[in-house]
Write a structure and sequence with these properties.
Layout (H helix, E strand, L loop, with lengths): L3 E10 L12 E16 L4 E7 L5 E8 L5 E4 L2 H18 L2 H7 L10 E7 L9 H13 L3 H6 L7 H6 L5 E6 L2 E6 L10 E5 L6 H14 L6 H18 L3 H19 L4 H5 L7 E3 L7 E5 L4 H10 L5 E3 H4 L2
Parallel strand pairs: 3-6
Antiparallel strand pairs: 1-2, 2-6, 2-7, 3-4, 4-5, 7-8, 9-11, 9-12, 10-11
Helix pairs in contact: 1-3, 7-8
C-alpha cells in the first residue's frame, strides 16, 4: 500500500435543522476548513494513529493491533474506543454478516499495516464536523459507504457526510431514509452582509435530536402537523436559494427560526443573546451552541464590535468560512 492523502470538508446546516431527519429538504454549506487523513505503510503489524489540532499540537495518539484493531496503548481511552468501533463497523460493512462473523474484525486484504495522521484545519470545539470528516476519510481508506459507516457509528441525517466531499452548497434530503444530495445554486449577492459567530456553547447533536424526537412524539395527536411543517421548511429552503436581497433573506430567517423554535421547544439564539441586535440571527445545526449566522447592513467594524462587546470574539465573514 502506498502513501495516501484524504481531505474532507466541514459543514454548516443553513436550513431544516432537525426537520431534515423526517424528510425536509435542507440547504447545507461545506466549509473551506476540514480534516485531513494521511496514511503511510509501516513495517510493524500495527496501526499507529496520531491526531493533530488546528494549532499543530498533538491531541490524541494510539497504537492498534493490525490483525484485530484492538487498542494496545493510547493517550485517551474514550477516543480509542470510538476508533475501535469505527474500524469494526467498517470491516463489517465490507463483508456480509456471515463472513464478518467468521472472520472477526480483521483488515481487508488490500490493507497492509500503516500509520495514520489526522490534521484539523479548524479548532476542535467549533463543531464544524470533527466526527463527520473523520468518518468520511476512514470510509475512503476502507472503501465503504460513508453514509452506512455514519449510521453504524454516530448516526444522524448524513448531510454532514454529503458536505464532506462537496465542492459547493448542496440541497440534501432523506427519501425514505436514503440520503440524496445535489448541487445548490446558493450564491447570495449580499454575502458581504453575512457573518458566522461562534457561541462557544458546545452542543451535543444527539441530545438535540433526542429532544426534537420527543417533541414530535408529544405532537403526534395533531394529525397534520408533520406533513405541514416539513413542506413549510422545504419551501423555505427553496426561498433561501432565490432571495435576491438582504431584507427578504432576513424575513425568511425569522420565519424559519420561529418554526424550529416551536418544534424543539427552545428559544431563538437571538432572543437569548442578541435581543438588541439590528440584523437577524439564524441557528445552524443543533440549537443553543456552536455557530450562528448573522446578517448585518452595517459596516464590518460596527458588526464585529457588537459581537465582541457581547463576549463573542470569533466572528468570521462569509468569504472566510465558505468555499
Amino acid at each position: 500500500m502506498s502513501e495516501q492523502h484524504f481531505f474532507s470538508k466541514g459543514k454548516l446546516l443553513l436550513t431544516a435543522e432537525y426537520a431534515v431527519l423526517d424528510g425536509a429538504t435542507a440547504l447545507a454549506l461545506p466549509t473551506k476548513m476540514g480534516q485531513s487523513l494521511d496514511i503511510k505503510p509501516v513495517e510493524t503489524n500495527e496501526l499507529a494513529w496520531t491526531s493533530i489540532d488546528a494549532n499543530g499540537k498533538e491531541w490524541f495518539s494510539a497504537t492498534f493491533d493490525f490483525d484485530t484493531f484492538k487498542c494496545k496503548k493510547t493517550s485517551n481511552f474514550d477516543v480509542a474506543m470510538m476508533l475501535e468501533k469505527i474500524f469494526a463497523a467498517a470491516i463489517h460493512l465490507k463483508y456480509d454478516n456471515s463472513v464478518a462473523k467468521n472472520r472477526g474484525v480483521r483488515p481487508p486484504q488490500y490493507l497492509t499495516p500503516f500509520s495514520a495522521e489526522t490534521r484539523l484545519t479548524f479548532p476542535r470545539e467549533w463543531g464544524l464536523g470533527t466526527s463527520s470528516t473523520l468518518i468520511s476519510n476512514i470510509a475512503q481508506v476502507f472503501h465503504v459507504n460513508p453514509y452506512a459507516l455514519l449510521a453504524a457509528t454516530f448516526g444522524g441525517s448524513g448531510y454532514d457526510i454529503a458536505c464532506a466531499n462537496a465542492d459547493s452548497p448542496i440541497l440534501f434530503k432523506l427519501d425514505k431514509g436514503v440520503p440524496f444530495s445535489e448541487k445548490a445554486a446558493f450564491t447570495p449577492t449580499f454575502s458581504e452582509n453575512l457573518y458566522f459567530i461562534y457561541l462557544g456553547k458546545k452542543q451535543n447533536s444527539r441530545e438535540g435530536i433526542e429532544r426534537y424526537k420527543n417533541q414530535q412524539i408529544a405532537a403526534k395527536n395533531n394529525s397534520n402537523t408533520k406533513g405541514g411543517y416539513l413542506k413549510e421548511i422545504s419551501d423555505l429552503t427553496t426561498a433561501f436559494l432565490t432571495a435576491r436581497d438582504l431584507k427578504t433573506f432576513e424575513k425568511l430567517i425569522e420565519q424559519h427560526e420561529n418554526i424550529i423554535a416551536a418544534l424543539v421547544g427552545l428559544p431563538r439564539a437571538k432572543t437569548l443573546y442578541f435581543a438588541d441586535y439590528w440584523g437577524e440571527i439564524k441557528s445552524l445545526g443543533a440549537w443553543g451552541g456552536d455557530f450562528v449566522l448573522a446578517t448585518s447592513n452595517r459596516n464590518d467594524n460596527d458588526t464585529k464590535k457588537y459581537f465582541n462587546t457581547k463576549g463573542f470574539n470569533t466572528v468570521l465573514t462569509y468569504a472566510e468560512m465558505m468555499l
